[in-house]
Specification:
Length: about 300
């Protein structure tokens, strides 16, 4: 036979509001709300203390350069800087190299993907370069989940035991952060948007420059991919080549309250739904089989 019409049948269980079954039902509702919350807290926490996202930063070379060339004994035999005060402090080691640089946006998205840097140093007779120390200044900006602008140095160092005519270094410029950065809603972060090498430094030695740079919560560092030395051919010059890439990278930040609530709600629901199904089954078993209540069918 065909079913021509159907309607649900409701079975109601009646009892006093201050009875033991009513008290058990209250405990089940409290457990349904509280237990998922406790489980979330015990399994990693309900609130996200810090979070990560991926962004390719806006990186711009600000033409701040400090470079020194060292001989086999480790002493600096030549140096140069584009910063006037540093150049004046170099004394007899000051030289005038030829420097070229270019930025390349290979995918035309408005963000620089890598930098080509070249420096040619004229050498005096009998001078042999065995080590190079170089610092390049960059402006670094984040605009996605974090609003941050800073100036920092990328330090590069390479050495070889043999006489060479040049070195080529390839690497990735990465953000190093000691603490998570504040999210957008906390305002723009520009606390380090000042040059590392300034008149406030007591001197311009490498140890002083690097200490001033490393004391900051956010700095840039070079993750070297390869370093290739070339044998000495033309002994009148030394060629330094760098190719610095700007890849997307993970940024740690302090989430905003809305970000926290979004992920806390998802975690709570993930535990609440299974608990809700279990509690409903327990309630059905208790009221249908355990508690002697008056039944009303509608």
């Amino acid at each position: 036979m065909a079913v021509l019409y159907s309607e649900p049948v409701y079975r109601r269980y009646l009892g006093r509001g201050c009875s033991f079954p009513a008290f058990v039902q209250l405990l089940l509702y409290v457990a349904l709300i509280v237990f998922p919350f406790l489980i979330c807290l015990r399994t990693g926490g309900l609130w996200v203390r810090d979070a990560e996202y991926t962004e390719q930063a806006a990186l711009r070379f600000n033409e701040a350069i400090v470079v020194s060339f060292h001989g086999a004994d480790g002493t600096a035999m030549a140096a140069w800087s584009s910063i006037r005060n540093v150049q004046r402090s170099l004394g007899s080691t000051a030289r005038s190299p030829t420097v070229t640089s270019r930025s390349v946006d290979s995918n035309l998205d408005g963000v620089v993907d890598y930098f080509d840097f070249s420096l040619t140093l004229p050498l005096n007779p009998a001078e042999n370069v065995h080590a190079v120390s170089l610092a390049l200044g960059f402006n670094f900006q984040l605009v996605d989940m974090v609003d941050m602008t800073m100036q920092s140095l990328v330090f590069v160092q390479a050495m070889t035991p043999v006489h060479s005519g040049g070195v080529t270094i390839t690497g990735d410029v990465k953000l190093r952060q000691v603490l998570p950065l504040p999210a957008h809603r906390y305002g723009a972060r520009e606390v380090y948007n000042t040059p590392v090498i300034s008149d406030t430094l007591p001197d311009y030695a490498w140890a002083t420059i690097l200490e001033a740079n490393n004391q900051r919560n956010e700095t840039l560092q070079l993750e070297t991919r390869s370093t290739t030395w070339t044998l000495a051919g033309d002994t009148s010059t030394f060629q330094l080549n760098l190719q610095l890439y700007n890849p997307p990278q993970s940024i740690r930040f302090v989430p905003s309250p809305w970000y926290l609530l979004k992920f806390a709600w998802v975690q709570y629901l993930a535990v609440f739904i299974p608990f809700y199904i279990i509690v409903q089954r327990v309630r059905g078993w208790l009221f249908s089989s355990v508690f002697p209540l008056k039944r009303k069918v509608e």
